[in-house]
């Protein structure tokens, strides 16, 4: 209701952080590629196995001087996994404590999502994914978000051995997406959701080009193989971008959506990371995923700010020079000086540059040690951080469960008319 909305607005007013003006509009009018790296964790960056880099193309991009890379960027998903990541990235709203908001609210809710916002700035918006359109209710949610096009499995060629796990293999998917990308009016915002690097990390012999790891844990050991395959698919895609010249007028955004290896595989992970143990603190650190923005001429470097998926939309809108002052977004520009570096996890745990909370245990983030004797000052700080985390999560939940955005329209915002959008949706 409207009283919930006023508490949300009050929160926004108190917590809004001005973006980094040095980066405002540096990508104005550029095409945007958002590449969703399925289950891709930060530890894979520069990771070596079997005498080779697992992901050389992603590593190269990570270290490129025209890439803004982040090494303290966390996934913040809950049960909705990929769906939560998509929701956060394009709305700066948290996933729900249970289930996936794309499924439960995606069809009916009012959103002020990236595609709608960018449509108004002359962008054509399209999502690409090699699974059936109904998965995570994408076919309906994307209309609510304003996606002009949704290229799902319905649009891609089929063949023997083309699919593995949840959909089209990444190399075929990226290759086959090209014909549609080429036809998009520019500037466009195109999101490509890969899927091969998904549990249980299956891949045909022909496409395996690195040995499995040797932890002895079957749910873990194929991970490097599919991660490498994803990296190669991206490498081929980057070459295509160069061939078309699209690399020159496009901004490339890459992110990992969530962990590939869950906290239930401590022994195997310790072995992978060459450590003797893997604690709950290590597991919190293990939730880091890549976030990179690449563009010719962009002032890059590895940025150490603590942030996460909730912060992507304000970051991108600033780079694109889109005014973003009265929207309902729970994140902040990752490049903003003096931003709040508290990273909230869906279960109320959090990480900051100083503190890490896992359940009822607090750690010193700088060294991973358990804080056993909290000083009064620390107690106060932790209580304040905890309160902030609870507040942002519960207010975001109210926005979604109460469909509060239908009561509030940012200045000048116009939602893309859903009735004008249609995708091929014959389901398998
Ligand atoms: C399926 C894919 C997988 O279409 O996006 O989602 P996940 O299992 O990672 O949430
Ligand atoms: Mn996923």
UniProtKB/TrEMBL annotation:
Domain Sulfatase N-terminal: 30-322
Predominant localisation class: membrane
Keyword terms of this UniProt record: Cell membrane, Membrane, Transmembrane, Transmembrane helix
Membrane topology, from the record: Multi-pass membrane protein
The protein's annotated pathway: Cell wall biogenesis; lipoteichoic acid biosynthesis
Keyword Cytoplasm belongs to the record: no
Cellular compartment(s): Cell membrane
Membership in a protein family: Belongs to the LTA synthase family.
Protein name, entry field: LTA synthase family protein
């Amino acid at each position: 209701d409207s009283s919930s909305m006023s508490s949300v607005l009050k929160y926004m007013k108190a917590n809004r952080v001005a973006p980094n003006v040095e980066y405002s509009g540096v990508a104005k009018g550029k095409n945007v590629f958002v590449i969703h790296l399925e289950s891709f964790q930060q530890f894979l960056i520069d990771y070596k196995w079997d005498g080779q880099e697992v992901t050389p193309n992603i590593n190269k991009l990570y270290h490129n001087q025209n890439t803004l890379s982040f090494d303290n960027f966390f996934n913040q998903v809950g049960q909705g996994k990929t769906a939560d990541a998509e929701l956060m990235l394009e709305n700066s709203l948290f996933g729900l404590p249970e289930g996936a908001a794309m499924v439960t609210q995606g069809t009916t809710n009012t959103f002020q999502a990236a595609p709608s916002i960018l449509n108004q700035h002359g962008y054509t918006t399209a999502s690409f994914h090699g699974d059936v359109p109904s998965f995570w209710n994408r076919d309906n949610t994307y209309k609510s978000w304003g996606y002009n096009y949704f290229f799902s499995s319905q649009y891609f060629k089929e063949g023997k051995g083309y699919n593995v796990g949840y959909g089209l293999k990444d190399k075929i998917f990226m290759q086959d997406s090209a014909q549609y990308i080429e036809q998009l009016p520019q500037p466009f915002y195109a999101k490509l959701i890969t899927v091969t690097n998904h549990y249980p990390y299956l891949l045909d012999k022909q496409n395996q080009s690195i040995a499995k790891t040797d932890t002895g844990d079957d749910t873990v050991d194929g991970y490097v193989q599919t991660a490498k395959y994803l990296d190669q698919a991206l490498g081929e895609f980057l070459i295509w971008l160069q061939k078309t010249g699209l690399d020159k007028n496009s901004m490339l955004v890459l992110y990992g959506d969530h962990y590939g290896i869950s906290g239930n595989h401590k022994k195997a992970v310790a072995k992978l990371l060459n450590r003797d143990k893997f604690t709950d603190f290590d597991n919190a650190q293990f939730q880091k995923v890549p976030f990179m923005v690449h563009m010719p001429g962009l002032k890059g470097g590895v940025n150490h700010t603590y942030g996460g998926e909730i912060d992507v939309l304000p970051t991108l809108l600033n780079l694109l020079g889109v005014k973003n002052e009265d929207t309902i977004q729970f994140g902040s520009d990752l490049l903003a000086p003096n931003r709040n570096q508290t990273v909230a996890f869906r279960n109320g745990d959090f990480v900051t540059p100083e503190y890490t909370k896992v359940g009822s245990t607090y750690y010193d983030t700088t060294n991973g040690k358990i804080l056993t004797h909290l000083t009064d000052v620390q107690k106060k700080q932790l209580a304040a951080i905890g309160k902030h985390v609870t507040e942002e999560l519960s207010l975001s939940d109210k926005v979604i469960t109460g469909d509060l955005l239908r009561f509030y329209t940012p200045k000048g915002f116009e939602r893309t008319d859903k009735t004008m959008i249609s995708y091929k949706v014959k389901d398998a």
